[in-house]
Amino acid sequence: MSCSQAEHSELPEFQVDINQDILFPLSEITEEITIIEPELTNESLIKYDYGGIDIKRMIRTENNIIVAMGGLSSSNTVLLFNKDGKFARSIGSRGQGPGEYNLISNVAIDYKNNRLFILSYGPNKIICYHLDGKFLKESRLNHVSSGSDYDININNDELLLACFFSVDGQNTKKIVYRMNDNLQITDSIICWENHFKSGKAINSHCFPDYIVKNGTSIYVYPKEIYGKWNAPTVKVLRDTLYRLEDNQLIPELKLKFRNDGFDRYGDKIINLHNLYRSSRYIFAYYAYNPNNRERNTEQEKVYQFCYDTKTGKGYNMPDGYKDDIHGIEERVIIRPLNTDSEYFYYWYTHMNPNDREEPNPTLYIGKLKK
């Protein structure tokens, strides 16, 4: 695959005002929301923190809900519930042997063949299971760097893997691999490349939503990483969403931050984690990292951004959206269904005064307006 060439001026640009603080209600963009209460048993505990970062992916099929948890602080397990939330089984188990995973980076679903792919690191491999829990096959990824910040998805019966590759800690690449049904790499593309003059790359913890489907199109956001105190030279358009089409990554749109997200010292203070779109809306999740060289006492802050292409209005929200539909007081962080970005989901734990233990978080799946 190869990158198509596009001039900066040809791309639609959408301004983001970081100083804007809107209590934006979900009812403005949501057609309907489905609520699922995952059953809590000794085997089906869903570990949830702020924003659900331990939850690598939620996948919905016609009859099931799949929740994958991963990372150093998580239980690293894949749980399968039926569509009403009743626990059915866990898929696979943790270990170093065949058919076992160690630390889960992400998962992908093959709807046509009822198969689940789990991307694991330490060691790096992709494992394939049937949804009934049967182990089918696996493939080692010895040439792919370890990391939790990876994404996988299925497109036209091919598995797409987006990952970072670091040669020496200073020169880092974002690569998208295409893999066949035997889990062998058939093609690859370097979709961006960083060169640091000094220091090491910093990759903030975030949601790995980099390959997202919308209808017949699949979009790739090559999340940038950067080095504090010394901004890198990046061989790609910054903060840009790409469409994968005919083996090319075609620039689709760009978010525009003031001074491209840099401060006066040349340090990157805006870290755009995710950028994706539905047919009507453009969504982003980003962090503001204040510069302590100016003795700034502010802490890192996360934002969600939504642009409505129908009305031409953009909304910037510190800490997320207001769920005015269900009356949730705290703001919620929404994520796309990576198999269909016309839907989004979020989690929220409801505690009652008489609860002796914390219940599983409630899952909310929303359908966007068109």
In short:
The protein is built from no helices and 29 strands.
- Structural class by SSE content: mainly beta
Average of pLDDT: 85
Number of strands: 29
CATH class: Mainly Beta
Order of helices and strands: EEEEEEEEEEEEEEEEEEEEEEEEEEEEE
Structure description:
With 370 residues, the protein is mainly β. It has a single domain (11-368), classed as Neuraminidase (6 Propeller), CATH 2.120.10. It contains no helices and 29 strands.
Q: Mind sketching the topology for me?
A:
Layout: E1 2-3, E2 13-15, E3 30-36, E4 55-60, E5 64-69, E6 77-82, E7 87-90, E8 93-94, E9 100-101, E10 103-110, E11 115-121, E12 125-130, E13 135-140, E14 151-155, E15 158-166, E16 171-179, E17 185-195, E18 211-214, E19 217-220, E20 233-234, E21 240-245, E22 248-256, E23 270-277, E24 281-288, E25 301-308, E26 313-318, E27 335-337, E28 340-348, E29 362-368
Which terms summarize this structure?
six-stranded mixed beta sheet, globular, 370 residues, mainly beta, disordered N terminus, five-stranded antiparallel beta sheet, Neuraminidase
